[in-house]
């Protein structure tokens, strides 16, 4: 495969660097609202299997399009030598520094991606830039970016561009999904048909990587579910501290452990999708960032009371606890005791396990040991809520363009009503319910089979959410 090159050109502050960042999935591309921040042509690469396949070149904005156009109009030599001659003629003129930088990749015959903000009026300087690129004669694709929600100027932009460009395409680098990036590569194949085969191979590589990312994400989410399902917090009982205090501390520690597990999974998901600069949580944002055990989370995510009952996970006495949780009430039923106090006192959160002090009732024998134990989780609603939050976070990552730097808004766009598992097909809900039953018993003979089934169905569901990309 030959290395394909495209230079991203345009007026200062039109969104060129944003286009580069989104196409290459590179968070390190410098993006600023201040015009003129890009001062040198910088190459960003897409590589597959250690081999560079595509170079996208970020360039400074035009500074002297009128003078450049006049020079080109008066050029008398060979057309193929025009760009190099222009660079030689202005090499020592600091006023043309930006113009020379953007000409360098054109001298190397890079394809042209011209970025224009079509939400503003067309100006004479824009026409001059277009004419400069028309004179150069390389394949040219105009990318219309709308920095504001104003399309009233679009007709005049299209009229001017049609005369000077091979293709015109709308492309919002701040909102572009994976599917829209693939559509851009489709356009590039039409722009340069002689390189269509290589561009198609790049697309196929990108789709393979995208599918692998979904598989990796599913593995991470299942691993989180498994750790959360089986997690226990154990603390030695201390006679000098009241049991109620130690229970509260143990519950808080158990909750903190699960929140930490969730945070680590989010970090891994960000790594998978090359969004490592994005936040994992922010206390000022919505339900996705509230504590996992906050009442609001339990009201909005997970399954409804009826759906939870229909999973078959709660029956008899347990249904009362599950139903209470499904309506938003968070009781100690979220947790269960691994071992109850002797004497029929019953199971309760943080109850001391068999200990080595004398049991506090006449005629009772000594306890073997004393520990306060919280977990493992016996409430299915907690698992559904944790899965819901993980999938909401994952889908946000999958559809977040790398050009977006408003990191504080990353999670705020998630609707508090956007629970996913409530809208799942019954088959997937039942599979996850079966997964919970089987995986709650370490070493179960069917663990491998249910794990495979759950991951397969979850991957199919994720693919359906991004069906245009696969």
Helix content: 40-55%
> How many helical stretches?
15
Mean pLDDT, all residues:
81
Shape: elongated
Number of domains: 2
Explain briefly what this protein structure is.
The protein has 470 residues and is an alpha/beta fold. The chain is 45% helix and 10% strand. α7 (178-191) packs antiparallel against α8 (196-230), α8 (196-230) packs antiparallel against α13 and α14 runs antiparallel to α15.
Report on the architecture of this protein.
The protein has 470 residues and is α/β, with parallel strands linked by helices. The chain folds into two domains: 171 residues, Rossmann fold, CATH 3.40.50; 191 residues, no CATH class. It has 15 helices and eight strands. The strands form two sheets. Strands 2-3-1-4-5-6 form a six-stranded mixed beta sheet, sandwiched between helices. It is elongated, with a radius of gyration of 30 Å. The protein starts with a strand and ends in a 5-residue tail after the last helix. The relative contact order is 0.10.
